[in-house]
Amino acid sequence: MLTLRSYVPPLVARRLSTETGKLPIPTADRFPTAVMFIDIAGYTNLAESLSRQHGPAAGAEQLATALNNYFTPMIDLIIAHGGEVIKFAGDAILSIWPATDQTQGPNFGNDKELATAIHRATQCALQIQQSLHQHQPLPQTSFAAQIGIGAGLVSAVYLGGVFNRAEFLLSGSPLIQMGRAEDLAQPGQVVLSPEAWQAIKAIVTTQSLTDNYQLASAIHPLPPQTTTYPQLSTNHHDALHAFIPAAILNHIEAGQVNWEAELREVTVVFIQLPGYGTSIRHPYQQTLPQAQKVMRALQTAIYQFEGSINKINVDEKGITVVAAFGLPPLAHEDDPLRGIRAALTIHEALANLDRTSAIGITTGKVFCGSIGHPQRREYTLVGDAVNLASRLMQTAYHQHLTNQLPLPILCDETTQQIAQRHWSFVSLPPVLLKGKKHPVPIYQPQARPRTGFLSFPQHNKHGKMIGRHQFWEQIETLLGQIRHKNIPNNNILLLTGEAGLGKSRIAHKIARKANKMKLTSFISRGDPMERHTPFYAWYPIFEDLFDLRPQLLESVKQQQKHILRQLPASPDERGYPARALQYAPLLNAIFPLDFEDNEFTIKLDDHQRQQATHAFFHRLLTLFLHRPQPRRLPALFIFEDVHLFDGPSLQLLAQLATTIPQAFFLLTARPLPPKKTVLTAHYHQFLTSENISQQTIPPLTPEETNELVQRHLRIKQIPPAIKQYIFSQTQGNPLFSQALATTLQENNIIGHTNGHPNKPINMKELVDLPLPHLMPKLIITHLDQLPLQHQLLLKTASLYETPFSLTDIEPRYPLNLSTDTLDQCLQDLVNLGFLRQTNQPAPHFYFKYPIARHTIYNLLLPKQKQLLQK
Description:
Elements: H1 2-5, H2 10-17, E1 27-41, H3 43-54, H4 56-80, E2 84-89, E3 92-98, E4 100-101, E5 105-106, H5 111-132, E6 135-138, E7 141-160, E8 166-171, H6 173-184, E9 190-192, H7 194-200, E10 204-209, E11 212-218, H8 237-241, H9 246-253, E12 262-274, H10 287-304, E13 308-315, E14 318-325, H11 335-352, E15 358-373, E16 376-382, H12 384-401, E17 409-411, H13 413-419, E18 423-431, E19 440-449, H14 469-483, E20 492-496, H15 503-516, E21 520-525, H16 539-545, H17 556-566, H18 578-583, H19 606-625, E22 635-640, H20 647-659, E23 663-669, H21 681-686, E24 692-696, H22 702-713, H23 720-730, H24 734-746, H25 774-784, H26 788-797, H27 806-809, H28 819-831, E25 835-838, E26 844-847, H29 850-859, H30 862-869
Parallel strand pairs: 7-9, 15-17, 20-23, 20-24, 21-22, 22-23
Antiparallel strand pairs: 1-3, 1-7, 2-3, 4-5, 6-7, 7-8, 9-11, 10-11, 12-14, 12-15, 13-14, 15-16, 18-19, 25-26
């Protein structure tokens, strides 16, 4: 509980201690306080310098170490002087000293209490400057602080609630005061706002600075008063969870906070709401509901694309929200695309609320971990990509103000390069940004994607399939049985395979083969962005059954009329679909056509509506499939990526397979770990269906892999050493093989002239070869889905370049697990495709993909590697 509490401000913990359950949201508390903002001078230049010297990843880790070394003694001083650390903002800390009577709490009518709070804040600020000025958190590196202090009434605002996630921020004029004061401070200085100075002018010496006051010294020092932390019980466990990032909860629960920090590639999205935030004030009848709408819009957009809100800060410029895509436990191979889609959704949602916004998007390797002190810390992002996203946000805002940028969203070159296959961008003139020596290329994403949204590149969908002859013979035999109505009792076949094995190509080839056989077939796929949209996977099926595609360019009214005309009637209804018309408004769950509720549907509560919608859709599908004209049975349903289906879609699929034995359901999915999450619970339940059978999609053989690469590169011959290298790295995974072959060609390791290689092979060049972006991202995506004990096992195993045994791992493994449990974890990782096992001369294990070991090893910080190697 103490560790959990350290991730929320004492102010929040104190507020939670007054509740018997979760905190009601939205809500706000108003109280007088002194506020102090500490900013590190030269931080941006240091970040850029470390990135240049050590590379983005190592530079980010060094920068995080410097911040921790500087913040730890600083927070010690804040706690010793009775202050409360509220927020970390990159290189800055926001602290408060509430004007409280220790027995009665906030004292609104006593100026003496507020003066005392300001006095303590100024004492702390002077002590920080005296003790930590030119502090060296790293060798040959010194930090200096600029400190601003304000005072007055602030509001502690609690907002959000989407997926039980709560956000906390401070609002009020003291935040503007302290920001202006800090802007005037030079490194090593403390500046008071006029309001703060007025309360304690008799006990300090100052120098006037443009209506603010530089603090020189304090007279009559107050005795120490250490910050007191409220006592929380296990009853407050869930309430605390609402404020703590999911990325670290598993580590906290396992008592392994030292292992949550990683160096990983993420897409960072900085969002600014100019001039908003300090206006959330008492009375709250108007401002609080509006703030709640804004926060829920932000949460909904970010969580829809499975991102995380990392920071929310308020200053004189407004609210700044920092979101990230790629943090555990929700990393994805398409995080840059998710960041872009979220940014566009946010911009539109805020515009609908009459709020302007400016957004900067970057992608890069950053430090992801805790910054601060054992008593007060935050999970944060540190690195050049974070700083650059902030600068792009500011640039977007300024260019938008001057009408240079119609859509105030900018992204960096890395994001543009990764996403350009599926998204259109406008290249803008490079800009010179703070901390950068040279102008930075910038890009503006367009409002619509270049193509349909895809998780990763699809290669030659309609080309000739290579290999897997026995597998295809079984599939063709199955299609023949379906065609002749000889459908197996297990009428659901689930084809599983890891990312890149060609599940999508296989599904489309099966669909084409079914069409040639005049077999009625329907095809759909799961979308990672729509896991929470009920019945999303059935939209293409209903679109086909209602023959809606020719009507899509018509008006909404015309589409509504078309659908109503297509509603099927039961045999006992003599051609008039009375029941279907009664339920028709429930089609809004799948068609965005705004059918108006009728007397029946308007009375349904949420639970009743969900049940009625499920029953209605099942009835519609049954009636459509049994229609004599056109005759649709037997039918083949092909669903790709069924592990991404929402719960209602899976439940409807299972029910339809049971009630219509003349239909066959062929599904594809990635293998998932045994751990059930909110996102996979319905899928795990679906796998228990009695009429489901499973088959694993095999990889390509070395010969088939070579044939695939030759065709992909359009060359007739590949040197034997390169053949062996590609297969050793990819193990017959088609997507990995093509991606790696492309990288080899782009780096001139192999080339072609008239279809033949033309360059001698230097195998030493392969050691430092930049690997395709897609491969590490897919591996980390899979890693994040594992239970913590499996993740730590793989991180421990990544130390070994050669096969390792259980006895090698056990002494180094961070968790206290039994030998049998650890052995079972190893077997799980073999079954999931991370490891392979050899029993000669005794059971040993090795990574299936060398790139997986390399990727997981690179997530570790140097300190973590040292701990594992002891």
